[in-house]
Design brief:
heterodimer, A: alpha/beta, Rossmann fold, six-stranded mixed sheet, 9 helices, about 35% helix, about 30% strand, B: mainly alpha
């Protein structure tokens, strides 16, 4: 197995009127082909910035990255051919129909008109949007938009699929549907790079995960390895949850206030 | 080429699916045409005013209406919607030529402007206006208006890409008013006061307006027509190049 994603000392520095901020500070990542890799972190930790650099949407300040075997800085178009991207905001054009959007996306990746129409029909079936295919996207529910966004990231059968918080804002039923899709896509050989705020989601789906905080990777391993390490280090009687691993890794703890559990800085 | 064609079709579809945005683009220029002619028409009577070449003052004012209509582009606002909604990132994450992304929208503006210019000229015909340069002149007239739409929408797209804000983009369109009014808008350049004449001479829109006007009032005056097309070609290349460069550097 080769590497689907490889990042070496990745840095992103933003310079503005109020000064310089290093959003990502020397991230190293190795994701094997065929994995579902979870990338976790609190808000503002550098998850989305890392994903945007890996998907060619943001320039890299220093360091290097290869996705689907291609250096994203040297050959960005080559990298784009090998990846599918679904970001936090479902990137859809509300004035088009679902079918038009998928056909257009397939045509942009070089499919002929008939091949694009065929691929769009297959994907609409895959994400269960056949009945809504010829309706304008502005009328779709949040879950339908997410599924269509996922489908549009798959039109060219990418080697690596980047998903940035694909289930944020979805109801539990829609979330389960997306999970099923991801398992099916991964079973067909596509590597999935997933960022999520939902630790249960990471536990359910990911073979391996990394936790980023303050722009640096603070934990990396399989969910089982990370739990075992915490249990041993903290001398716990029972297996900790992934929530416990996350809170330990990011220096946060939980407190109960007025009957609700909330995170506080440790 | 395929990418340019599919993105152009998408942009045209976008325009057709928001017909309400077309109404002010036709109505406001016709409104200004009627008001300007109503206010100044008696000062320049037909037959006694040499620069009208035998036509009414409305014929002299039609180019202003065409330029105003061509400057009401919606491409930049649709682009801001794409940026805010995430679709622009989807396009950027695809192996799509950045030139195709820019030209896709601008070509739809050109098509829209040609159609609207045709409507404005046809609406003006019953009021005694004729296109003195004939059918070829009419084609050149609407083509030049369409080309100006590409230039001005390219400028607006640049603001949209830099600001990523609908409010800033909309404000940027106001720059058209000084550009339009620092031209021989109401009288030929040689009748302007000296300061206005100097300002008009340095304003590129002057040469487009004079080319449009010559197509309506004169036979094919190739020197003037050539200057008009030369200006839109020069600024068109600059705008497309700046748009492409901005998308390539977009973070």
């Amino acid at each position: 197995m080769g590497l689907a994603v490889e990042a070496n000392q990745l840095v992103k520095r933003f310079t503005g009127r109020s000064g310089t901020v290093d959003a990502v500070r020397g991230v190293d990542l190795r994701v094997e082909e065929g994995e579902v890799f979870g990338f976790l972190g609190p808000n503002g930790a550098g998850k989305s910035t890392t994903v945007r650099m890996l998907t060619t949407l943001m320039t890299i300040t220093s360091g290097s990255a290869r996705v689907a075997g291609v250096d994203v800085t040297v050959d960005p178009d080559g990298a784009r051919r090998g990846i599918g991207v679904a970001l936090q905001e479902a990137g859809l054009d509300p004035r088009q129909t679902g079918r038009e959007l998928l056909v257009l996306q397939a045509r942009l990746f070089g499919s002929s008109p008939s091949a694009a129409a065929g691929r769009a029909a297959d994907l609409l079936e895959l994400v269960e949007l056949v009945d809504a295919a010829d309706r304008r996207i502005k009328g779709y529910s949040g879950g339908m938009k997410r599924r269509l966004d996922l489908a549009s990231a798959l039109v060219h059968q990418p080697k690596v699929l980047f998903l940035d918080e694909p289930t944020t804002g979805l109801d539990p039923a829609s979330r389960l549907t997306v999970w099923e899709e991801l398992r099916r896509i991964n079973a067909q050989g596509t590597t999935v790079f997933l960022t999520t705020q939902y630790l249960e989601e990471a536990d359910q789906l990911c073979n391996r995960l990394a936790i980023i905080d303050g722009g640096v990777i603070v934990r990396e391993g399989t969910p089982g390895e990370l739990k075992a390490e915490l249990r041993q280090r903290a001398a716990l009687d029972n297996d900790p949850s992934l929530d416990d691993v996350f809170l330990d890794a990011t220096g946060r703890t939980r407190e109960r206030v007025a009957g609700q559990v909330r995170e506080v800085l440790g | 080429m395929t990418q340019f064609v599919v993105l152009s079709r998408r942009a045209v579809r976008e325009v057709l699916r928001t017909p309400e945005s077309l109404f002010p683009t036709v109505f406001i220029p016709l409104f200004f045409l009627v008001v300007n002619v109503g206010q100044a028409g008696r000062i320049f009577p037909t037959g006694e005013t040499s620069f009208l070449e035998g036509q009414g003052y409305a014929a002299f004012q039609v180019p202003s209406a065409l330029l105003l209509a061509a400057s009401f582009g919606s491409a930049a606002l649709y682009l801001v919607e794409d940026i805010e909604g995430g679709y622009f990132d989807k396009l950027r994450a695809s192996p799509v030529s950045r030139t195709a992304i820019v030209l896709g929208r601008l070509s739809a503006e050109a098509v829209k402007s040609v159609v609207i210019s045709t409507v404005i000229v046809l609406a003006a015909l019953p009021f005694g206006i004729s296109v003195a340069s004939g059918v070829l002149g009419f084609v050149l007239l609407v083509t030049l208006a369409g080309a100006w739409a590409v230039v001005f929408s390219g400028f607006m797209q640049l603001i949209a890409l830099k600001s990523r804000s609908a409010a800033a983009t909309q404000s940027g369109s106001l720059v058209f008013f000084p550009l339009l009014f620092l031209t021989p808008n109401f009288v030929p350049r040689d009748l302007l006061t000296r300061p206005m004449e100097i300002a008009a001479t340095f304003n590129p829109v002057t040469y487009i307006m004079e080319a449009l006007r010559s197509l309506i009032l004169d036979d094919l005056a190739w020197a003037r027509i050539g200057r008009g097309f030369g200006v839109v070609a020069l600024f068109g290349v600059v705008m497309v190049a700046m748009n492409v460069r901005t998308i390539r550097a977009y973070d």
